[in-house]
Amino acid sequence: MPSQGTDFRMPHVVVINPTSSAEITAGIQETLDQAARRWGVTATAVTSYGGPRTIESDDDGRAAVSPLLATAGQHRADAYVLATFSEAGLDELRAAAPVPVIGIAEAALTSAMAHSRRLGVISTVPMATFRHELYWAKLGVSGRVVADLAIGRSEFDLGSRDAANAVLVAGRELVDRRGAEAVILGCVGLGHLRGPLADELGVPVIEPCAAGVAMAAMALADFPPDVMPPRTQPAPPPASYTPEPAYDPGPGRGYAPEPQYGRYS
Q: What is the pTM of this model?
């Protein structure tokens, strides 16, 4: 990171959830806090409230682009991380933003490839795996991905013990039968399972939002010492922009896993 000179400031990374699901954003923020400390940046997860509830189809991805661009324009940042494994809107945000823009799928793949040549991916719904395969081909890494296994659950159904068991079954299939040497969590809602899953499988498990923050920090470190790209400034909100309300899950609600994860039994 830039050395501490007279103009030093802590780099700030804005992680955009391109869906309107504030509970997902809350889960992302929990993942970011540790990653940001590790890489010497600050990181804030924000919600694109004008976006779709979730991104499970190509239509969802297209619907997310304009609202996420508007959301990015409302948050000052030294770098952006786009928190969707589908990478919807990534090219458009890179074209529009004057600072580094990181996609979490690309960041997770880069991190996993540093560990091994044979990668496995755990996804939520089968439809997502088709989009992922197209993206692997675009990046030229299809031959490195031994399998992308869907557990058949939406991102709003990942906090239960049953979901954790489904993730573990998929992880064991990837490692024990498919020969994966590293596993990527192909959804932002699986971050709370990274540590327990790595302990169970005995291989690196990559959480994509944390990988995105790491790549953003490294991109900022490429600038000369004591020189940072100009931090983006909030633009006047467009007429269609929906401002971000305070998130209050209320009693018994919100995005939170069951507290007891260990052996998944």
A: 0.81
